[in-house]
Design a protein that fits this description.
- It catalyses: 2 D-alanine + ATP = D-alanyl-D-alanine + ADP + phosphate + H(+).
- It is an enzyme of class 6 (ligase).
- Strands 8, 9, 10, 11, 12 and 13 form a six-stranded antiparallel beta sheet that branches. The chain has a four-stranded antiparallel beta sheet with strand order 4-7-5-6, sandwiched between helices. A three-stranded parallel beta sheet has the order 2-1-3, with helices on one face.
- The protein starts with 12 loop residues before the first strand and ends with a helix.
- The protein is globular, with a radius of gyration of 20 Å.
- By secondary structure, it is α+β, with helices and mostly antiparallel strands.
- It folds into three domains: about 15-95 and about 295-305, Rossmann fold; about 100-120 and about 190-295, ATP-grasp fold, B domain (D-amino Acid Aminotransferase, Chain A, domain 1), CATH 3.30.470; about 125-185, Dna Ligase, domain 1.
- Helix 1 (about 25-40) packs across helix 10.
- It has helices at about 25-40, 80-90, 95-105, 105-115, 130-140, 170-180, 215-220, 235-255, 285-295, 300-315, and strands spanning about 15, 45-50, 65-70, 125, 145-150, 160, 180-185, 190-200, 200, 205-210, 225-230, 260-265, 270-275.
Length: about 325
């Protein structure tokens, strides 16, 4: 892990954007609270703003040096807030608008992964207006078990592992509750892993173990039974291939800032990319802070580092 940029000689005026109106607003508020606390402890002036309560178009940005985005889900991760801040000329953490939009759509990401030879489970894009029989046909030709998930949603909301045709209608109803588009995805049986990146640096790999059927919303945020491992049974070459796959997924999408890649390792030791999260969770249950701590990087340093690297890009950008 390379050294973070030097600590700024003067404290930064930082706006943490958290909350919003997405299905993940509660988690976003918790993430924002963690980030604010950590950056304040580093000596910065921090204000938390909830875009569902404050109009960002009329907000006074004149004293803001940089924005830390802790907005999960729709509006936060789909490129909308990024495009707004770019239009307002306000620097912010993380990926730019086009990359955020691409990563937030599971189908669009998968198409990019396929183009760049990054292994990802096969899928079919579906829409709520599709004929039910046509969806059933897709599912049958794909074979059970399969996974039904919203095309654009985070925190495993609306995700179901479907083992038989009888379970499909209810899974589709859950999926379409969150998004008008969804995907049917081949279910990969295996172990769950996550690769976290800070710009081009890779944080320690984590293997996730949960008593749940998969790493769902409860396992992510509410359960204390979920276990996170930094010591692995697998041989070194397998561990390296998981990390390499995670890095390749980020390169395929062109990400920057703090990013988390969710990966499944099948019984043949083949890694499969499920998705890339461009604004991963920053709560005390979240994976990136755990990985940073394992690397000896304090959470406040991690947050500050991302902001400084963004500001360095802004100041070195050629003027028109």
């Amino acid at each position: 892990m390379s050294h973070s940029p030097a600590q700024p000689s003067t404290p930064l005026n930082i706006v943490v954007l958290a909350g919003g109106e997405s299905a993940e607003s509660d988690i976003s508020l918790k993430s924002g609270e963690s980030v604010s606390r950590a950056l304040t402890a580093r000596g910065h002036q921090v204000v938390t703003v909830d875009p569902s309560l404050v109009d960002l178009e009329t907000y006074d940005w004149s004293t803001c040096d940089v924005v830390f985005l802790a907005l999960h889900g729709t509006y936060g991760e789909d490129g909308t807030i990024q495009a707004t801040l770019e239009r307002l000329g306000v620097p912010y953490s993380g990926c730019d608008a086009p990359t955020s939009k691409l990563a937030f759509s599971k189908s669009a990401s998968k198409e990019r992964f396929i183009q760049q030879n990054v292994s990802t489970p096969s899928y079919v894009l579906i829409h709520e207006s599709d004929d039910a029989q046509r969806i059933e046909q897709h599912a049958r030709s794909m074979g059970y078990p399969l996974v039904v998930k919203p095309d654009a949603q985070g925190s495993s909301l609306g995700v179901t592992i479907v083992k038989s045709p009888e379970e499909l209608p209810q899974a589709l109803a859950r999926c379409f509750h969150y998004d008008s588009f969804g995907i049917l995805e081949s279910a990969i049986a295996g172990t769950e892993w996550t690769v976290s990146l800070v710009d081009d640096d890779v944080l320690p790999l984590i293997q996730i173990e949960t008593p749940h059927e998969f790493f769902d919303y409860e396992a992510k945020y509410l359960e204390d039974s979920t276990q996170y491992h930094f010591e692995f049974q697998q041989p070194t070459n397998v561990i390296q291939s998981i990390i390499k796959t995670g890095v390749s997924a980020c390169q395929a999408l062109g990400t920057s800032g703090i990013v988390r890649v969710d990966i499944l390792l099948d019984r043949f030791q083949q890694p499969w990319v499920l998705e890339v999260n461009t604004i991963p969770g920053f709560t005390d249950h979240s994976l990136v802070p755990k990985a940073a701590a394992q690397a000896g990087l304090d959470f406040g340093e991690l947050c500050e580092r991302v902001l400084l690297s963004r500001l360095a890009k802004v100041t070195t950008r050629p003027q028109n």
